[in-house]
Every structure is written in C-alpha cells, then in structure tokens.
Amino acid sequence: MRVLIVEGNPELGAIWCRHLQRSGCDVVQVQSQAEAIEVLQTGPVDIIILDLVLEEGSALAVADFASYRHPGAKVIFVTDSSFFSDGSIFRHVPNACAMMPARTRPEDLGALVEHYAMH
After folding, report:
1. pLDDT at 96
2. Average pLDDT of the chain?
3. What is the pLDDT of residue 89?
4. Which CATH number do you get for residue 101?
5. With contact defined as beta carbons under 8 Å apart, do 83 and 36 qualify?
6. How far apart are CA 40 and CA 38, in angstroms?
7. Residue from 52, 48, 109 nearest 85 by CA
8. Domain count of the chain?
9. Helical (H) or strand (E) element with 76
C-alpha cells in the first residue's frame, strides 16, 4: 500500500510516516502542494493523509488533482482548525473519506489507513 503524507509540520509527518512504515506501508512524506503534485505525477497512491491547512499551497488543490489523476485514492484530512467542522468537506471533496484532528494517535491513523485502503 502506498501512502502520501502531506503535512507542513515535518516532525508530525515523520511520526506518522514511521508508524505506517512499521506497518508495512510504502510512505512518501512531503510538506507542500507542489511536492504532493510531483509525487502524484510519478505514480499511484492508495491513501493520502493531507493537512487541511498547508503552509505552502492548497490542500483542496492536492485532493482535486488526486481525484483526477488517481480516482481510487482516498484522502484522510487532518487539521487543528475548526474549518469544515460541519462535515461539508465531504460535499466539496469527493475522495475525502475521513477528517481527523492532527493530534490523532499514530495507531488510530494507521487503523484508518488500513481500513480505507481495503475498501
């Protein structure tokens, strides 16, 4: 299973990355929209863990590009913001499958990745 992590906080992204790698995932970690688009152009991904509020670029642009380039890829949004807390993200982003707080434990995030990769 190939996972793309797009997280502006490199330390947080690294925690998630190490946990998913220990679970057997092939993980690519980037920090910006431009880097994420580059990864999506080079090959398929199964799951994208995507910080909703990127410091460099737009998370919605990444999700939109992924839905075009890899229609089967699911997006798990993570955020510390209350933006889209009403669930409207699922109306705006058809490949969104979950929205979690950034403080979610790596084990829980890993369980979500495994669940959505199988479905």
Report:
1. 87
2. 89
3. 65
4. 3.40.50.2300
5. no
6. 5
7. 52
8. 1
9. strand 74-79
Structure tokens at 63: 């999700």
The tokens for 42 are: 């080079």
Distance CA 119, CA 111 (A): 13
- For residue 14, what are the domain limits? 2-118
What's the rounded Cα separation, in Å, for the pair 32 and 36? 6
Structure tokens at 10: 């490199």
Stretches where the chain sits below pLDDT 50 are none
- Length, in residues, of the chain: 119
Q: Hey, what are 31's tokens?
A: 């920090």
Say if residues 111 and 18 touch (Cβ distance below 8 Å). Answer: no
Q: Are strands 74-79 and 26-30 parallel, antiparallel or unpaired?
A: unpaired
What is the structure's pLDDT at 83? Answer: 57
Residue 86 has which token pair? 């009403």
Can you give the pLDDT at residue 11?
94
Burial of 88 (0-12, 13-18, 19+ CB in 10 A): exposed
Write down the residue that tokens 């990864």 correspond to. Answer: 39
